[in-house]
Amino acid sequence: MKQPLFTKYVLPFIQWYVLMIFLAIAIDYFLHRLHLVAVGRYLGFTGTLVIVVSFVYSLRKYKVIESGSPKKLLLLHEYLAWAGSVMILVHAGIHFNAILPWLGILMLLIAVASGLIGKFLLKDASEALKNRKQELINSGIDKEEADKKLFFDTITVDLMKKWRVVHLPITLLLGLLTLIHIITIVMFTK
Fold first, then answer.
1. For a disulfide at 77, which of 2, 57, 169, 189, Cβ 3.0-4.6 Å?
2. Measured between alpha carbons, how far is 84 from 178 in angstroms, rounded to an integer?
3. pTM
């Protein structure tokens, strides 16, 4: 029996996203309860460093480096970026007292959401389209006829592949806001 689309595609996305936010709130809560609030400052630095390390995948993808399996590096990118985001959310806590932290957290949440969309929806949609096409061919329909029957599904998957058009600028904006945040902290901290 096939799983409903919501269960197969949307629920894992929601679960990872909610887990990220819940985990950040829980860690922040326990740091406050244990009077270790200062740890949150260091988690901002650590989380940023973890996210920067996750971009080894991008270096491999764009052939800046030649070593490493792209598939394994993508998985590493996904988990490191998620873990780094949890750390940054703990760093931010609920102590937003300026516009820059609000914008940074908003961009972080959007970047993580767009990354999770790519992880769960695009991969599964591409596989489902490929499987559907193979089912049609196995049922006796020739390749051209199968392509015609799946025309709108193919267009939908092709449009979904454009998610990077959203993910990349948001990630770059997040990087810029992070850089501005770091510069202002260095400038105004005594």
1. 57
2. 13
3. 0.77
